[in-house]
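Re: that backbone. Tokens:
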């Protein structure tokens, strides 16, 4: 993997992380409760989903 590929992959993952975090934070409360998700932990949940 070249340096450019690594940079592209990093940027792509960061974009997915930001989008996932936003979606979790903006999720309606009833949906979050149904899925047993604490919207205050959006950053942790998004990080786990994207980076493992």
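Recovered sequence:
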């Amino acid at each position: 993997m070249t340096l450019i590929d690594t940079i592209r992959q990093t940027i792509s993952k960061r974009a997915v992380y930001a989008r996932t975090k936003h979606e979790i934070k903006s999720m309606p409360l009833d949906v979050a409760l149904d899925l047993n998700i604490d919207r205050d932990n959006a950053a942790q949940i998004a990080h786990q989903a994207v980076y493992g």
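The chain has a mean pLDDT of 96. The CA atoms of residues 33 and 49 lie 19 Å apart.
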